[in-house]
Design brief:
70% helix; 4 strands; disordered C terminus; two-stranded antiparallel ribbon
Length: 569
């Protein structure tokens, strides 16, 4: 019964996550370039990546739920082994799917869209041509697979860390392949993580606090008055045109057209341009004056259309939501304070973790600056809070989900603000209802990589929770000292069956760092750059003018509305 219940919950979670990512993809893509292939592949890619993150609290629950409250020993080792094997299979299914999406399906979707703008043909022809280009990425994938099996696997240089030897002794070929592929994908996403997440963590609270959307509220009375004034000026311009034509006919009846009312009196730049092009004469000057009036009329008509579009947009659902957003200023300030607290907490946590790794890592470069134990000498609020609420599952799932989703939203915010960039070169803008389909595909690619980096960074942010949850073992300070409970550490794994059991995610990440320390070192230095990027983004937000914050709030999401900044406008 428990298996069926777990399967039902998993299917529901997959469907709900896919539905959210589908709505996200549909919201950002340009309606003129929207197609089922792009939306489906992008939404599935994001859903699978996000779901791989949400498995971590479930992993912690599996290793923590069956322990004795007195001894800390698991009461049913066979059931624990079965559940961990099932979780490992689930992790690997998600990771293999991520690899296939990143190297095969997303490139296929990109070239499928490009073929839509190129040669004509049926869907079969487009699929064939897109498949030919996607084969290149499949070849890269094959090379990656081969490198994953041929790359020299190093061992940890820390002789005191015997738990690493116990951990990697069962490092199979499948483990090596998946860990290498995921490590490469996460390595490709380090730059995006540093830039987009750091920028978003600062701009989410700063944008909520400093934006003045209420100042740009639609004043319907002023717009209607302006429309009436423009209509009156338009009618006056018609009368002016009629007067010019009547005056020219009445005073230029001699047939030569040189003695009209405007023969020498009207010397505007329009009349001079007409005289130069067509020769001097009253009729030409009259036509030039009429053309000038018509130009003013067209400008009036355009302004009236813009005002009417603003009034019509204000009546739509999007306009009403914008009105509610402008009216929620107190709530936005509360949200700004809450998100600012999360950003500061994350920055402090990453900073403490980085200092801890520099100071206490014995193996340094050979293990990616990994720590000898998960227990920290510094205060770790996020980790300790997660461990404290872990017995009350799903409370830890909710908090962990909020924390991870906030980091992921920061990446989306940075991507929307900075656009899709490669080597600091902006390739595509990211706007609601204005993102080109190929830009959405590349943005999805980057977000997948960022999510994998977040997955690995959480081991540094909450090492005790990610490794053991609230597991403990009994210890004493001496032969006659009383026995007390001590939080599990990696050095105590594998010594006594059922005591201090690693989560599957911790096993995977520790194995990767021990066997391929290069990726751990890259993660470490990316963390340093991440801290620097947050400081730079904070200075930019503090020095940013109010007008720029207001301008960012007036960009329309409607491709047919005023102020739209999407592609093709």
């Amino acid at each position: 019964m428990a298996v069926w219940l777990f399967s039902a919950v998993l299917v529901a979670a997959v469907f709900f996550t896919w539905l959210l990512t589908f709505c996200f993809s549909r919201y950002y893509v340009d309606p003129k370039q929207r197609n089922c292939v792009t939306l489906f592949i992008c939404s599935v890619s994001l859903a699978v990546t996000v779901l791989s993150l949400t498995l971590i609290p479930l992993d912690v629950y599996v290793v923590s739920s069956g322990i004795s409250s007195e001894t800390g020993v698991h009461t049913n080792l066979s059931e624990l082994a079965d559940m961990q094997d099932g979780l490992k299979i689930l992790y690997y299914v998600f990771y293999i799917t991520v690899v296939l999406l990143a190297f095969i399906f997303l490139p296929f979707a990109y070239f499928y869209f490009e073929e839509d703008e190129g040669e004509e043909g049926s869907n079969g022809d487009r699929c064939f041509r897109a498949g030919k280009y996607a084969i290149i990425f499949a070849v890269v994938f094959g090379v990656l697979v081969g490198a994953g099996f041929l790359v020299k696997q190093g061992a940890a240089a820390d002789t005191e860390a015997d738990w690493r030897d116990r951990l990697v002794k069962n490092f199979s070929n499948l483990d090596q392949f998946i860990s290498f592929c995921i490590a490469v994908l996460a390595f490709l996403g380090l730059a995006a993580f540093v830039i987009y997440v750091a920028y978003g963590l600062v701009m989410i609270p700063a944008g909520l606090w400093r934006s003045r959307a209420g100042a740009s509220a639609v004043d319907r009375t002023a717009l209607l008055t302006q429309i009436d004034d423009l209509e009156a000026q338009h009618r006056a311009a018609d009368e002016e045109v009629a007067y010019i034509r009547a005056s020219d006919r009445g005073e230029g009846a001699n047939g030569r057209g040189s003695s009209g009312r405007y023969a020498g009196a009207l010397k505007s730049k329009y009349a001079q341009e007409a005289a130069t092009a067509r020769g001097a004469g009253a009729s030409n000057e009259a036509r030039a004056a009429t053309a000038a009036v018509r130009r003013r009329q067209r400008e009036m008509e355009q302004q009236m259309e813009v005002n009417a579009a603003v009034l019509e947009h204000d009546k739509t659902v999007v306009g009403r939501c914008a009105t509610l957003w402008r009216a929620s200023t107190p709530l936005r300030y509360i949200a700004a304070i809450a998100t600012m607290a999360l950003s500061v907490l994350l920055f402090a946590q990453v900073l403490l973790s980085t200092v801890d790794r520099v100071k206490h890592s014995h193996c340094k470069w050979s293990c990616g600056f990994a720590l000898p134990d998960a227990a920290k000498p510094y205060f770790n609020p996020v980790d300790q809070f997660l461990v404290a609420i872990a017995p009350g599952f799903p409370a830890d799932l909710i908090f962990f989900g909020v924390f991870v989703i906030y980091i992921f939203l920061a990446a989306i915010t940075g991507l929307a603000a900075l656009g899709v960039r490669v080597l600091c070169i902006k390739l595509f803008p990211v706007r609601a209802h204005g993102t080109p389909a190929n830009g959405l595909i590349m943005g999805t690619w980057l977000l997948m990589f960022v999510a994998l980096v977040i997955n690995q960074q959480m081991l540094s942010i909450a090492p005790q929770y990610m490794s053991f949850g609230h597991q403990f073992y009994l210890s004493s300070d001496g032969p006659d000292a009383p026995v007390h409970k001590t939080a599990c550490a990696p050095s105590h794994t594998g010594l006594v069956p059922g005591v201090c059991v690693f989560t599957e995610m911790a096993k995977f990440l520790y194995k990767t760092n021990s066997k391929m320390p290069f990726f751990g070192v890259a993660q470490f230095f990316a963390t340093l750059l991440f801290l620097v990027a947050i400081c730079v983004s904070t200075l930019y937000a503090m020095c940013r003018s109010k007008s720029s914050w207001n301008a960012s709030q007036t960009q329309s999401d409607d491709p047919d509305g005023p102020g739209y900044v999407g592609r093709g406008r």
